[in-house]
Design brief:
- By secondary structure, this protein is mainly α.
- About 80% of the residues lie in helices and about 0% in strands.
- It is built from three helices and no strands.
- It has helices at about 1-10, 20-45, 50-70.
- Helix 1 runs antiparallel to helix 2 (about 20-45) and helix 2 packs antiparallel against helix 3.
- The N and C termini lie far apart (about 25 Å).
Length: about 70
């Protein structure tokens, strides 16, 4: 999951994103990247509760990114 998440971050803002939405998309990508980092740390050293919380943060951030994708 972390590998694929990092690939999403590397892609950056997708083509077709409205100019006024690009800054917001970049912010959400940064949040997603931070959530991935926290999840990775919790997967290695955290408690089950911490892992559950960080997984939810990754999921919620991904869902936000998906909702911001340009529609064709």
């Amino acid at each position: 999951m972390i590998k694929h998440g990092r690939e999403i971050v590397k892609l950056g803002v997708p083509d077709g994103t409205a100019a006024d939405q690009q800054a917001e998309f970049k912010k959400e990508l940064a949040k997603f990247n931070s959530a991935l980092n926290k999840f990775r740390t919790d997967a290695r050293r955290g408690s089950n509760s911490q892992l559950k919380t960080s997984y939810s943060a990754v999921h919620d951030s991904f869902e936000m990114l998906a909702s911001m994708l340009p529609r064709k």
